[in-house]
């Protein structure tokens, strides 16, 4: 019997991680995948374009555009840095909308996906809570709306386990009635890297599938399903215990490789683990953990503080990107 190794692949929602896994340690270029990287003031911006089916199949991501902000120092709680990230996010998001043809007059529906009762899954509802909403003014007193504001509405539809209704079905009903020009869906993601948990923001124009990072196959929020362009914003807040164990084994391998005579020293300590691929090693870890019920979904103990901070960063950046009247240098003042 031949094992399907896809069952044991590292689960991640981040396009940059999918590309890294496809490239391997030699960082081999991938045809059909274009990458542009900028880094300044501790903020790394990666713009990734998947141009064709070959690139899509190579990294396991849909054809489209992906922008990732990585800020490892965000965990330090530096409010000045958080302000800078909001400004950079606002700039990148505005440029992203321009690239995919969303103009300044387009009406927007913000969808905060996730369960507000579960801290690492509450990103979407928290962003909605802090978003600058204006649709009611356009509906009731349109002549009194000041220049520089966009028609923005928002909803946190809850999760299937709470409502009995798929999020995409709730959103579909709202789209049919309110006719937004674009949907912005915000959700918590899963990562394969401990360093990227709560320090990374991804923007993508391919829509979103709730729960995909933790193995749930559900009806998504995409242009094909809803009939409206859908931009996804996500922050990784969890990873699998098996991924952590696998990462630790890889770090041990690299550490031992730097000691003594390198390869021989690593082989002596790691044994067969030094010879097998990352995917095979992950398969081994999962085979050990899953029967014991220990392949847990893990989040940092400081998640309460992290989730509030990253939600404020995303909401502040969105407010500045969507409304010209909001000063991107003072975005924090427009959340509540």
TrEMBL record:
Pfam families: Peptidase_A25 (PF03418)
Protein name as it appears in the record: Germination protease
Function: Initiates the rapid degradation of small, acid-soluble proteins during spore germination.
NCBIfam families to which the protein is assigned, alphabetical: GPR
Family: Belongs to the peptidase A25 family.
Gene label: gpr_1
Reactions the enzyme catalyzes: Endopeptidase action with P4 Glu or Asp, P1 preferably Glu > Asp, P1' hydrophobic and P2' Ala
GO molecular-function terms, A-Z: peptidase activity
């Amino acid at each position: 019997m031949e094992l399907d190794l896809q069952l044991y692949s590292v689960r991640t929602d981040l396009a940059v991680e999918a590309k890294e896994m496809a490239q391997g340690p030699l960082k081999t270029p991938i045809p059909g995948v274009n990458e542009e990287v900028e880094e300044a003031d501790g903020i790394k911006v990666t713009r990734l374009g998947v141009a064709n089916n070959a690139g899509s199949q190579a990294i396991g991501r849909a054809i489209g555009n992906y922008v990732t902000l990585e800020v490892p120092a965000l965990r330090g709680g530096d409010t000045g840095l958080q302000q800078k990230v909001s400004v950079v996010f606002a700039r990148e998001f505005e440029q992203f909308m321009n690239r995919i043809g969303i103009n300044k007059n387009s009406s927007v529906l913000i969808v905060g996906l996730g369960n507000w009762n579960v801290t690492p899954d509450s990103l979407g509802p928290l962003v909605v809570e802090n978003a600058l909403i204006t649709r009611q003014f356009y509906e009731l007193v349109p002549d009194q709306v000041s220049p520089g504001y966009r028609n923005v509405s928002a909803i946190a539809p809850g999760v299937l386990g709470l409502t009995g209704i798929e999020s995409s079905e709730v959103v579909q009903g709202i789209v049919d009635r309110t006719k937004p020009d674009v949907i912005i869906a915000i959700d918590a993601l899963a990562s394969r890297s401990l360093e990227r948990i709560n320090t990374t923001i991804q923007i993508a124009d391919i829509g979103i599938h709730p729960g995909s990072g933790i193995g749930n196959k559900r009806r998504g929020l995409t242009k094909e399903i809803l009939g409206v362009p859908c931009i996804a914003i996500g922050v990784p807040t969890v990873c699998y215990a098996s991924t952590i164990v696998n990462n630790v084994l890889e770090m041990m391998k690299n550490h031992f490789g730097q000691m003594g005579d390198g390869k021989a020293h690593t082989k002596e300590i790691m044994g067969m683990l030094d010879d097998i691929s990352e995917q095979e090693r992950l398969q081994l870890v999962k085979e050990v953990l899953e029967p014991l019920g220990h392949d847990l979904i893990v989040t940092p103990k400081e998640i309460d503080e992290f989730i509030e901070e990253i939600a404020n960063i995303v909401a502040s950046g969105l407010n500045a990107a969507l409304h010209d009247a909001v000063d991107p240098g003072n975005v924090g003042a427009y959340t509540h």
